[in-house]
Amino acid sequence: MSQPLLACLLTLSLLPLTSPEAKPPAPESPMTLSRPDGRSLAWREVGPPEGRPVFFFHGGADTGLAAQLLLEAAETTGTRIIAPDRPGFGASSAHPERGLRSWASDVGVLADHLRVARFDLIGHSGGGPHALAVAALLPDRVDRVALVAGGAPKDAAPKGMALPFRLNRWFAISSPGMQRRFVESHRSGLQNPERFLSQWGRMSRADGALFVDQPEVASLIIEEMTQAYSGGIDGPALEGRLYYQDWGFELGEVHQKVDLFYGDADPMAPVGWGEYFEERLPSATLHILAGEGHFSGLVHYARRILDSLRAIEPAL
After folding, report:
1. Which of 70, 117, 187, 217 is the most exposed, fewest CB within 10 Å of its CB?
2. Which long-range contacts does 184-192 make (Cβ < 8 Å, 24+ apart)?
3. Which residue, 29, 73, 24, is CA-closest to 227?
4. Closest Cα to residue 270, out of 258, 283, 281, 260?
5. How far is CA 173 from the centre of its chain?
């Protein structure tokens, strides 16, 4: 592959947002918990403290700060959202040997610390595999699960993915060194939000429109993605490879009800991945979000996603 072509593809990989003119209210700093191995596990909370507990797992280039996107819906539905940063993201320490199974252990420890016996899960994007892992490995604690544009394993076809994300997937499977360069290009791109917007709009009109219509959302996403790389690229780069390795559990072990929300205009997580999970999970329902992208589906359907966890049929 020629260097000019590679540079072009890496440039297109940047998630373009918008200039941060409208600032959201500054959220409080994350809370932290020390693990026995010396690591710190950070998390934030959104919604009423007495509400029904729901763990929110962020995407593969994000942090728990992204849970602010669900703030209004959480307050309306009386939902307490607990949003941890995964190891190597934001304020959580790195864990070089981590996998999906170790994440379930971290979540169990955090739930114990918060005295939360049972809870629901939301996994957005790269948080999807982590939500399924926690559901499979902590079956007596997890009631329901919602995947929103959730990432899928290697045997799920990439049909419908935009070229830069297909390329990143191939790098994660076959060329870790190139995949690190891809992740580094994403981190570097965050320094130019306007460029993010112009390029993202060519791949996802739905998300591009969201960022223009709600600049405070774009500003929040810039901030939380920037925080994701505060400890460097090792955490996000490692995670990008985990999606395509052995998950350490079988989808048939997830016996909770799982609602799958996939936008049919999402260039990162195609509807085909939702169909993949619906066929293989014991109790899953796919909801196709017409005209929605990777972030717009999470924002526009936040209330319906939370309703699905409360056993209220989501009205699409």
Report:
1. 117
2. 184/233, 185/10, 185/11, 185/13, 185/14, 186/13, 186/14, 186/15, 186/61, 186/236, 187/229, 187/233, 189/11, 189/13, 189/14, 189/15, 189/16, 190/14, 190/222, 190/225, 190/226, 190/229
3. 29
4. 260
5. 19
CA–CA distance, 39 with 235 (Å, rounded to integer): 13
Residue ranges in the chain modelled with pLDDT below 70: 1-28, 197, 312-316
What tens digit of pLDDT does each residue of 187-199 get?
A: 998 889 888 767 7
Domain architecture of the chain: domains with CATH:
3-309 (3.40.50.1820)
pLDDT tens by residue, 230-265: 999 999 999 999 999 999 999 999 999 999 999 999
Strand-pair category, 257-263 with 284-289: parallel
* Cβ atoms 54, 84 nearer than 8 A: no
Tokens representing 80 are: 């307490």
In whole angstroms, give the CA distance from residue 240 to residue 88.
Answer: 12
Residue with tokens 């394993």: 153
Rounded to the nearest angstrom, the gap between the alpha carbon of residue 279 and the centroid of all alpha carbons in its chain is 22
Nearest to 297, CA basis, from 155, 186, 152, 146: 146
**Going edge to edge, which strands form the sheet with 31-34?**
31-34, 40-46, 79-84, 52-57, 119-124, 142-148, 257-263, 284-289
CA atoms within 13 A on the CB side of 78: 4
pTM assigned to the model: 0.91
Q: Could you please report the per-residue DSSP string of 70-104? A: GHHHHHHHTEEEEEEPPTTSTTSPP-TT--HHHHH
Q: How far apart are CA 211 and CA 221, in angstroms?
A: 9
Query: H helices of 32-175, where?
Result: 71-77, 100-113, 127-137, 163-174
